[in-house]
Amino acid sequence: MALLTVENLGIGYQTAKGLLKAVDGVNFSLEPGRSLGLVGESGCGKTTIGMALMGLLPPNGRITEGRIVLDGVEISTLPEDELRKVRWNEVAMIFQAAMNALNPVKRISAQIMEAIQTHRPDMDDDAALLRVEGLFNLVGLPLERLHDFPHQYSGGMKQRAIIAMALALNPKLVIADEPTTALDVIVQDQILKETKQLQSQFNIGIIFISHDISIVADVCHDIGVMYAGQLVESGPAEEVFFNSQHPYTQALVSSFPTLAGPKTKLAPIPGEPPNLTGTIPGCRFCDRCPKDTASCKLDHPKWQQVGPGHHVLCDHC
Amino acid sequence: MSESREHKTILQLEQVSRFYRTRGNVFRGGGRLVVALNKINLSLRQGEIFGLVGESGSGKTTCGRLIVRLEEPDEGRITLGGEDITHLKGKKLKDYRRQVQMVFQDPYQSLNPQVTIADSVAEPLITNKLGDPLDHLERVLKVLDTAGLSPSEDYVYRFPHQLSGGQRQRVAIARAIVLEPSLLVADEPTSMLDASYSAQIFEILQGVRDNMGATIMFITHSMASARYLCDRIGVIYRGHLVEQGPAEQVINAPQHPYTKALIDATPKFGRSSEVPTYGTLLAAERPATSSAGCPFFRRCALAERLLCAGTYPPWHDVAPEQVALCHLLQDAAPAASSG
């Protein structure tokens, strides 16, 4: 059985200009121990999906349609106190900007212990501290830094502490939202390697959210490419990036600088994504697409299967 | 381009150092001296895009700030077109800054949120008393077009919050080029932006070089972007320049262990078979016995304890136009002249 199933998910934000449909008709599922990378530009709805999976949408945001099923439980309709039992026990999140995700006036050990004891009220301080020490070993943090404050850590160490906190209660699913964006290449490389290793060691399902296609290609088994609130292409990482079918994925790949291979001119994607308040009749990528035709603007594109497990939301693929 | 022997040097940094003193406290007295840049020698050639690559904290931003004279070097000399600008003041400094402009990293912080795009971009013209208001608008429209914001009429009366990150960065570039500078320092202009916008920014910077003849210093942490945009690159590590050479050559045949470590850490995106793995980075830092040795000693897997820990490494001409700061390298057979 799939660890996570997302069916026809729609999420809207109530704004002064009306309902902004940040996520629209998104379907995907994740098997235990697999990783799914969600890629797309900022504003495409990838972080919103992550927040919805945690049940942490901001007050003006709500799930307008569809359902999220985690391990057989529909979490999209759970009341808050039920949801609190799922959160961090079953689903944990590695937040964007590790610098700001830690409490600056509390020692690292106390912060992770707090996360553990909130969910395991029967666990005493000694047991919790022992668990934190185990986590420090796991993510490669030196034990003598256990009782430091966040400002005494480097960026990479903070990110490791955040990962330790996410793993504290052995979750089945971890949502990693741009976990390495603020880090240097060398530290990023170390963190990604560790993430991959921890994932296979504990058979965790990971949803990896990033705008950097080279990182998700490196880390994830499967990829979902998002554009303007919709999933537009999904499938195995190799297929999606090296046999891309959707014009947007192709554009993303060809605008990305690589270290080797022919130094072809990078092809920037012209224009900007559409405004998501109100309704968009046809394909959302239409205005920026090199092969748009009159019919694209009129009708919603349909999902096509282009290979084993490889699907594209485009009528011309 | 690198074939021609006519390399006119426009900007030169000679033995430039910059120190910062950390703030001390009541109990410890004065602060610690931090070396942000250590005796940097660098020359930029007329009309090239020079990439300065390094991690955060390596001093690359400090180097950019010294060049636009937002800071003064503590040691050494900076010259632009032969003229010493190291300690310029007053009107002369203002004149200098007309020729040398900067694009900052974060377009969410570098634009005044209460000022329209037109006023933001026209500000350098007003400060330098160039032309009348009508003339300003005309130049603003033209320069916004150059920076890829067209039709520019649609953008002039907007405010920064109405623009996306990529558009804001293009406004920042427009403002930097409105005075038609001869040198542009771009400090990680794409690191805060989505990958899909970076290619646009690269294209605009290339256009600024090709059409306006400006020389560009491109500060980045990404080897892959440097490969696409730059003619030559310099690699900087903790305030020390460690390798310099033609971009393609440094990336395809890196010589310094730190450059190799940077290449190792860059995601290959399906091309891992074409890029060798060097394995020059030590998993755990080793303690350094003295501060006189190689700056990379603590993290270098190849280092030899006696040689590398004790003495500062020399520069080696490792290939035509390519130099590296390492004890373990040798000069290439035909002695090439270094820049």
How would you characterize the overall build of this protein?
The complex is a heterodimer of chains A (317) and B (339). Chain A is of the alpha/beta class and 317 residues long. Chain A has two domains: 4-90 and 171-275, 3-Layer(aba) Sandwich (Rossmann fold), CATH 3.40.50.300; 104-169, no CATH class. Chain A is 33% helix and 25% strand. Chain A has helices spanning 46-54, 80-86, 98-101, 108-119, 125-139, 155-167, 185-202, 213-219, 237-242, 247-254, 294-298, and strands at 4-15, 18-30, 35-39, 61-70, 73-74, 91-94, 173-177, 205-210, 222-227, 230-236, 303-307, 310-313. In chain A, strands 6-7-8-3-9-10-12-11 form an eight-stranded mixed sheet, sandwiched between helices. In chain A, helix 4 crosses helix 5 and helix 6 packs parallel to helix 7. Chain A is globular. In chain A, 46% of the residues are buried. Chain B is α/β, with parallel strands linked by helices. Chain B has two domains: 9-252, Rossmann fold (3-Layer(aba) Sandwich), CATH 3.40.50.300; 256-339, no CATH class. Chain B has ten helices and twelve strands. In chain B, the strands form two sheets. Chain B has an eight-stranded mixed sheet, sandwiched between helices. In chain B, strand 11 (315-319) and strand 12 form a beta hairpin. Chain B starts with 8 loop residues before the first strand and ends in a 14-residue tail after the last strand. Mean pLDDT of chain B is 90; it is low at 335-339. Chains A and B meet through helix 7, helix 8 and helix 9 of A and helix 5, helix 6, helix 7 and helix 9 of B.
